[in-house]
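job 3f2a | input accepted
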Amino acid sequence: MASIVIVGAQWGDEGKGKIVDLLTQYADVVVRFQGGDNAGHTVYLNKDKFVFHLIPSGILYGDKKCIIGSGVVIDPGTLIEEITGLKKRGYVKDDSNS
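job 3f2a | predicted structure (98 res):
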């Protein structure tokens, strides 16, 4: 089972999120494995702009499994805000009414 790992060698804006977004087409699973919400990455899909701080950018692709790993420091407010925004834009299915 092949894996691709993107690791930053600096402390910040290295473009890791954009590289992950580019490589997502070849992945089954996209994992955010460490860090917090103090930084973020911006990706574009069909001219729509998305800014993520916690959720892996693979969430924009319905056939990808996205995981937030145990090394991620989660601010519940930020996570809820990202999930709510994705639901409003139709990228996350709301199963609460099932």
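job 3f2a | The two ends are 35 Å apart (CA to CA).
job 3f2a | closed
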